[in-house]
Predict the structure.
Amino acid sequence: MERHLEYMKRRLREEERKKEGIMSGIHPSPYVKEVLHTDHRLIDDKKVKNFPQDIQDELFIITTEECSELSKECMKYLRWGMDKKRRQNLISELGDVKCMIDLMVEFGVISEQELEDSTITKRNKLKKWSKLFNEPK
Ligand SMILES: [Mg+2]
């Protein structure tokens, strides 16, 4: 099965070729077209390096892919329970997502402070709306 990143790269190449008039049969959805060609730059150029748009897109594409893979491993645990292999897969996918979060900060999409504030906000919500912080009975 084609991985999401490969799919997005292929669509980008097809779009570029189509633009050049080499190809005419493939019509990407308006959504893909918008994603690939909108200058949705979130990076504050004053603070960080100016990364090309395709690099920024790749950051978001891989982050999406890794979040999906982590979701899959969480669902496997819920469905089948934990064993050595699933634990290793979970560790791997958690690391992948953490790496992408770190890269979001390194690329200046969000700041370290914004990430920390958001983490605290989520913890506070969980204290109110989940049982995660309850004393064990
Ligand atoms: Mg992964």
In short: The pocket of magnesium ion is lined by residues 66, 69, 93, 96 (CB under 6 Å). The radius of gyration is 19 Å.
